[in-house]
Design a protein that fits this description.
The chain has seven helices and ten strands. It is of the alpha+beta class and about 220 residues long. The chain folds into two domains: about 80 residues, Monooxygenase; about 130 residues, no CATH class. α1 runs antiparallel to α2. It is elongated. Keywords: Metal-binding, Zinc, Zinc-finger. Pfam families: EF-G-binding_N, FBP_C. InterPro entries: EF-G-binding_C, EF-G-binding_N, EF-G_N_sf.
């Protein structure tokens, strides 16, 4: 069977099964475990608009009767997971053609990514590329120079950490102004380690909102 689970959907399933694992280990009441398991099953299935009977069978967690089985199930499920389409270096160079002396990341064709993100220390920017409705879009975000000890929340994955891990960035946005040189700047917090962020993100809604605003996509 072909892969049918998007990477962020798989992350959501992992999060749900982490909760199930906690219930198995901490709840002595079998009825509560059964009810919780049914609720988690519904949450998983509701992530998908359409599913075949075979796909529903793969997502069925009835066979998970104790926490020991969860890791094995997730390993099996990973074979049905897919990430964003492969990106060539040429496509990235074209996407960020306004960035001079851009250092491209090493592209791993086997990785399953929600989005491609990397830091170019030479230009002090975090760059993000994403497949939005079949089109490659991106944003180039300036890294902040502030140094505070406060905890920040990643806009994409909700991870909470210090500025060393979750920093404030500001991309330049295109506008609908008739002036071709008209731009505006916005800001948000994001994980500096995009690989780890890709393992945590459970929804692409905020990412797509930001990319649409940055690229003036209606």
């Amino acid at each position: 069977m072909e892969a049918f689970i998007k990477k962020h959907e798989f992350n959501y399933i992992c999060k749900c099964l982490f909760d199930l694992n906690s219930t198995f280990r901490n709840c002595p009441d079998p009825m509560i475990v059964t009810t919780t398991k049914a609720h988690i099953q519904n949450k998983i299935l509701n992530q998908f608009n359409t599913l075949t009977e075979d796909q529903k069978s793969i997502l069925n967690i009835d066979k998970l009767i104790d926490p020991i089985k969860i890791d094995g199930y997730l390993k099996e499920l990973d074979s049905y997971v897919y990430g964003m389409p492969k990106i060539s270096s040429a496509a990235l160079s074209k996407l960020f053609r306004k960035e001079k002396k851009l250092k491209l990341p090493k592209l791993n064709e086997d990785s399953k990514l929600v989005y491609l993100g990397w830091i170019d220390p030479g230009i002090k920017k975090l760059l993000i590329a994403y497949n939005l409705n079949g089109k490659l879009v991106g944003m180039s975000c300036r890294l902040s120079e502030t140094n505070t000890s406060t905890a920040n929340v990643c806009t994409l994955c909700n991870h909470v950490a210090s500025e060393n891990d979750v920093a404030f960035v500001s991309p330049i946005c295109k506008t609908s102004s008739s002036n071709s040189d008209a731009y505006k700047s916005i800001g948000f917090h994001i994980c500096l380690d995009s690989k780890k962020c890709n393992e945590r993100i459970t929804s692409t809604e905020k990412l797509e909102e930001l990319l649409k605003e940055v690229n003036n996509i209606k």
